[in-house]
Amino acid sequence: MNPLKPKTPLPSVATENWDDWKWHMRNRIRNEADLCAYLDPTDQEKEAIEATKGVFQWSVTPYYASLMDATDTACPIRRQVIPLPEEMQFDSIGLEDPLEEVAHSPVKNLIHNYPDRVAFCVTSQCAIYCRYCLRKRMVGEAEFMMRKNELREAIAYIAAHSEIKDVLLTGGDPLTLGDAHIEWLLSELSAIDHLEIIRIGSRMPVKLPQRITSDLCNILSRYHPVWLNTHFNHPNELTPEAGKAIDSLLRAGVPVGNQTVLLKGINDTTETMRELCQGLVKMRIRPYYLYQAQLIGGTAHLRTSIETGMQIMRELQGHLTGFAIPKYVLDTPYGKVPLTRDYVMGRNEEGVVIKTTRGDVWVEANEAPATGALPSV
C-alpha cells in the first residue's frame, strides 16, 4: 500500500507513553525548541513559527511529527502543519469566514445551512492545527469552547427542529474530548426521535490514531447509526497505526469515509491522488470528497486552480474502481457544488463562475492556470 514502516517511539519515549493518546496531547510540539527534537527547522519555518504567534494556532502531535521527512523541506506532512512566511501574506481574496458560517448559526457553534442537517462544533480544540484549516478563525480559541449549558442550548435547538435528520459533530476535533463527554453528547442526541444519523468529523485516525481506543469504540457502537469521516491528504499518512485505528472503528460498526483537501505541492498530482485513493480503499475507507481549498486568509500558497482538480478527476477515471474515486466539490455559502462541467460554467474577470445546486450563480475567486484555463463566460 505504501512504503512506510511501522512507526516506533523515539528513543527517549517509553512505549506505554507512545501508545497513550493523552501523552501525545500533553506533549504536543508548540514551539521551535520542541520541533528540533524531530528535525532542524529552516530559517523560513523559524520565521513563520514566530510570526504566527498570537495570530494562528500551531501545534503538532509527536506521532504526526514522526511522519515528517527531516531531510525534505517539501515533505507533504511537514507542509500541512509547519507554518511558512507566506501564511502571513494576506491576499485580497482571503477571508476569515468564506462559508458565512456565522450568519448560519442560530446558536453558538451550530451551523444550519442545509434544511435537514446541521454542523455542531462541539469544541474548538484540535490535536494539530492544519495550516489550511477552514475554521482558523476559531480553532484553539477559548471563546469558541463550548460549556455544558451552551451544548445543551444547541441540542435543544436540534430537538425543536423536526426537519433536522442528520447532525455532524465537528469542531475543532470532537475526538479531542474525553470518552465521558463524547458519550454524553451521543446519548443526548440519540434521544431526539427525529434525528436519524450522527456523523463525526475527525482527523484523529490520521494525526493521532492512538485515540481510537477500545473504550471509545465501545461507546460509538452503542449509538448507531454513527458514521465517521476522516481526513487523509497524502499516502504517507496511511500508516500501520492508522490502519489499526480504522480497523477498530469498522469492527465497532462505524462506517468510515474520507474527505481530502486539494493542496498545492502536497497532493495536487494525479499520481499522488491515485495512490491515496487506492490506499484508502485497501484500508476499507471510502473516498468521499475531494475539496477545493477554501479562500482562507494566508493560504494562497496552498490553493490550486480549479482546473487542476478537474484535470486530476478526469485522469482518475478509468484508472480506479468507481467507488475509489471521490467527488470533487467546492463548498460555498449556498452549500457544496460538484466541480464538474454540469456546474462549472467557465471564467470571468473575477474567477470561476459556478451554478450551485440551488440554482444560484457563485463566482469563486481563483487564479487561472498558465495553460488549460476554462472558457470565458
- The strand line-up of the biggest sheet is 1-2-3-4-5-6-7-8-9
Number of strands: 12
User: What is the first-to-last residue Cα distance?
Assistant: 43 Å
> Which class of the largest domain in CATH terms?
Alpha Beta
Number of domains: 2
Shape: globular
| Whole-number mean pLDDT | 94
Flag low-confidence runs: 1-5
Radius of gyration computed on alpha carbons: 20 Å
Q: Helices and strands: which structural class?
A: alpha/beta
Number of helices: 13
Biggest pleated-sheet summary: 9 strands, mixed
Write down the secondary-structure element order: HHHHHHEEHEHEHHEHEHEHEEEEE
CATH topology of the largest domain: TIM Barrel
Query: Could you state the CATH homologous superfamily of the largest domain?
Result: Aldolase class I
CATH architecture title of the largest domain = Alpha-Beta Barrel
Question: In percent, how much strand structure appears in the residues?
Answer: 15-25%
Report helical residue fraction.
25-40%
Q: Can you lay out the helices and strands and say which pair or pack?
A:
Layout: H1 15-18, H2 21-26, H3 32-35, H4 43-51, H5 62-65, H6 76-81, E1 110-114, E2 117-121, H7 148-160, E3 166-170, H8 179-190, E4 197-201, H9 204-207, H10 214-221, E5 226-230, H11 240-251, E6 256-262, H12 270-282, E7 286-292, H13 306-316, E8 327-332, E9 335-338, E10 344-348, E11 351-355, E12 361-364
Parallel strand pairs: 2-3, 3-4, 4-5, 5-6, 6-7, 7-8
Antiparallel strand pairs: 1-2, 8-9, 10-11, 11-12
Helix pairs in contact: 8-10
